[in-house]
Amino acid sequence: MKTATLASIALAMSVSVANAQTIGVSMSDLDKFRTALLNGVVAHGETVSGLKLVTENAKGDNELQKKQVQKLIADKVDAIILAVSDGDLGPQMTKMAADAGIPLVYINNVPSNLLDLPENQVVVASNEKESGTLETKQVCALLKGKGRVVVLMGEPFHAAARARTQDISDVIATPDCKGLEIVERQAAYWSRDYADQQLQEWLAAGVKFDAVIANNDEMALGAIRAMKKAGMPMKDVVVAGVDATDDALASMVAGDLDVTILQSAVGQGAAAVEAAVKLVNKEKVPRENNVPFELVTPENISKYLPKSQ
């Protein structure tokens, strides 16, 4: 299977569309990261002469997202960029777009039918094997390979949540980190508020832990909020997330968050637009297009502050 990096699919920033074209963009929801992702799509779309973007927000409703995609197809957009919350929606979305002959770019979440995508459908995302692995290895290093860990997971049906959670287990199974023990693991649905509530429940139950490993920054920040309300000294707990959002970077500067992983919303947004334009122009695009993750810590945060999402 061919995989491309962002650099390999990027066109010149001055690229223009020969004839006016319209790309429909359907977002599963607009939380902190997905808003940044949409902003990345829109910002790059504005650099493409003659390109119009039509955006939709499904607000977490899978049925609504299907209807929105059907409407985009009925409106005869030239291509669709689609962020699904549930990768299992892939087969249905793929069939709708394929039947209409409209190119489809999945962004951020990998559809369950990845291996069966037709030639005019591709994925722009980041290799989730990197995210949870980088995050957990850093936690392991900070704990010197020994400690009790609680894990906050995203939506159970989201491919990234499953992959990042498996990454945590894989790292803990390695010789250098086998002294780490997962004492609790629960879904907090990418949400700061759900994570806050979950941490409060664990603390009330007397759960003892040395680190919180969250599938995203919003959950890490919710955990920090709960621990602060409980009067826990943040210097005694390692907290890790993924996305390098602006709030997460501010929390790291404040000394609360210890680890985050940059998932470039700007990079994914730009790559998705470029892939859609290429597909509309009948150019070949690799099925998988990966935008690399990067480890962000207090030691190197200065180089990432301008990149905040």
UniProtKB/TrEMBL annotation:
Listed SUPFAM superfamilies: Periplasmic binding protein-like I
Signal peptide residues on this chain, from the entry's feature table: 1-20
Matches recorded under InterPro entries: Peripla_BP_I (IPR028082), SBP_2_dom (IPR025997)
Keyword terms, alphabetized: Signal
GO MF: carbohydrate binding
Keyword Signal: yes
Keyword ATP-binding: no
Any one GO CC term of the record: cell envelope
Record's subcellular location: Cell envelope
Pfam families: Peripla_BP_4
Domain Periplasmic binding protein: 23-284
Family classification: Belongs to the bacterial solute-binding protein 2 family.
Listed PANTHER family: D-ALLOSE-BINDING PERIPLASMIC PROTEIN-RELATED (PTHR46847)
Protein name, per record: Ribose transport system substrate-binding protein/inositol transport system substrate-binding protein
Organism field: Rhizobium aethiopicum
Lineage: Bacteria, Pseudomonadati, Pseudomonadota, Alphaproteobacteria, Hyphomicrobiales
